[in-house]
Amino acid sequence: MHMRLLLTVALAGLTLASSAAAQTTRPVIASDADMPPTQFPMPRPPSEILNTPALESDLLPPLRAEVERLLRDYDIKDPTILNRLRIGLASIDLIENQPERALRLIAE
C-alpha cells in the first residue's frame, strides 16, 4: 500500500514537472523563415530620419525593444540570426554612445 502511494505521488510529480516545462518552452527560431513578422511605424521616410536626432528618439527604441524581446522570448538555434541580432544591438549601443554595452554584447 505504501509503495503504491509513493508511486502515485511520483507520477503526479512527473506530470506536473513535464507540464511546467511545456509551458516555459520558448518558440524556436531555426531559420529566417521562423522569424516572427515585425513592423515599425515610421513618422517620416527613412532618408529623412537618417543622421537626425529622430533616429535615436523615434526609431532606435522600438528596434532595441524588439531585438531584446526576440532574444528573451525565443530559443534562437541559428547562430547567424543570433549573431545578427547581437550585432544589431551593439550597433544601437554605438549610435547611442554606449561603447561599453556594445563591447559586452560582442564578448558574449
Any chance you could write out the topology, listing elements then pairs?
Elements: H1 2-24, E1 28-29, H2 46-49, H3 53-73, E2 75-76, H4 79-95, H5 99-107
Parallel strand pairs: 1-2
Helix pairs in contact: 3-4, 4-5
Task: Write up this protein.
This protein is mostly helical. The protein has one domain. 69% of the residues lie in helices and 4% in strands. Strands 1-2 form a two-stranded parallel ribbon. About 17% of the residues have low confidence.
What are its keywords?
108 residues; mainly alpha; two-stranded parallel sheet; 5 helices; globular
Structure, briefly:
With 108 residues, the chain is mainly alpha-helical. It has five helices and two strands, in the order αβααβαα.
Broad structural category: mainly alpha
Query: What amount of the residues lies in strands?
Result: under 5%
- Residue share in helices? 55-70%
Note the main sheet: 2 strands, parallel
